[in-house]
Amino acid sequence: MNDTKLCRSPLDRLSRLRGVVPAAMMILIATATSGCVQTALDDLGDAAPQISTKTMAEMRKKKMSPQSPVLVRTFKEESELEVWKQDATGRYRLLKSFPICRWSGKLGPKKTDGDRQAPEGFYSVSKSMLNPRSQYYLSFNLGYPNRLESALGYSGTALMVHGACSSAGCYAMTDQGVGEIYAIVNASLGGGQTSFQVQALPFRMTAKNMAEHRSDPNFAFWKTLKSGYDAFEATRTEPRISACGGKYVVNAEFQGGDPDDPLAACPARIDTPDPAVAARIKTEDAELAALLEKDGPSHLTAYVDGGMHPSFRVLLKQNGPKRLAEKISNIDYPVSQPDAALADPYEKE
């Protein structure tokens, strides 16, 4: 979504109100359909670009500081954004999960300007890519297209993680959600981290989930993303991402350094594989191969246009798009394609 063109509401309409109820608590709303939890719009609280008291307490509990390095993962199918931070051991631990209010398109990478696809891939976000005066309250640019995507001829600009609940290629987190996400990543960048990695993924990339998407035309591409996912899962350290041979390559050191052309053949590798990563990949590959040999369930995606976390879907259904939009953003911008957001995005066979 072009962050500078699509919304023209004046910035003075944004009120910097005190406090923020963590958006991650709204995950609990998903159980409302069973009658276990009843949550109203008032429970969402107000937006504020600060780390909540509850999250600060969680940092202390997990031996993290606000300035310690951060890493972000997004998952389309689950409609969740995860914020990870380094603890005292130097490894990353999950700090908090945020429900995504709206993402557009379908599973698969963004390739063309205007295709409404939210990006999938590995991105690096520096301080200059944070926008404290975004038309969508607060935002940070993912850096799409990255080097590999540019080499492949992919196009598109200003693909963001931002507030509100409207997407044309972005990840919309509500003002409440993006306020705290922004505060967390800003503190890390202010503490000495030069940039943080964003892993934008189609789903949690387990062997089981991969097998369920075996018929998708993006399966081969997703296997390259899975390499980075597995490396992080095995070590809880940030994977080093290179690009050659027209694909991502993880934790590689090449003779002569990284190739300048992401489409050129990969040079000879001179790195020593990490035993933990190698063991996980071997296990995952074996499990995936076994699952692919069976006639198992598959996801047939039936997206009308993108997805919405179940917690927000409950609120949208109960309150309608106008009331939801008013509560989750001080910007006069509607929930994008609410009928599509209410639709079940999957059909199983």
Write up this protein.
The protein has 349 residues and is α+β, with helices and mostly antiparallel strands. Helix content is 28%, strand content 19%. The chain is built from eight helices and 14 strands. It has helices spanning 53-61, 147-151, 174-190, 207-212, 219-235, 275-292, 310-328, 338-342, and strands spanning 70-75, 80-86, 92-99, 102-103, 121-126, 130-134, 137-141, 160-162, 171-172, 195-201, 241-244, 247-250, 299-301, 346-348. The protein has a five-stranded mixed β-sheet with strand order 3-2-1-10-5, with helices on both faces. β1 (70-75) and β2 form a beta hairpin. α5 crosses α6 (275-292). 43% of the residues are buried. Mean pLDDT is 88; it is low at 2-38.
Question: What's the layout of helices and strands?
Answer:
Layout: H1 53-61, E1 70-75, E2 80-86, E3 92-99, E4 102-103, E5 121-126, E6 130-134, E7 137-141, H2 147-151, E8 160-162, E9 171-172, H3 174-190, E10 195-201, H4 207-212, H5 219-235, E11 241-244, E12 247-250, H6 275-292, E13 299-301, H7 310-328, H8 338-342, E14 346-348
Parallel strand pairs: 1-10, 8-9
Antiparallel strand pairs: 1-2, 2-3, 4-9, 5-10, 6-7, 7-8, 11-12, 13-14
Helix pairs in contact: 5-6
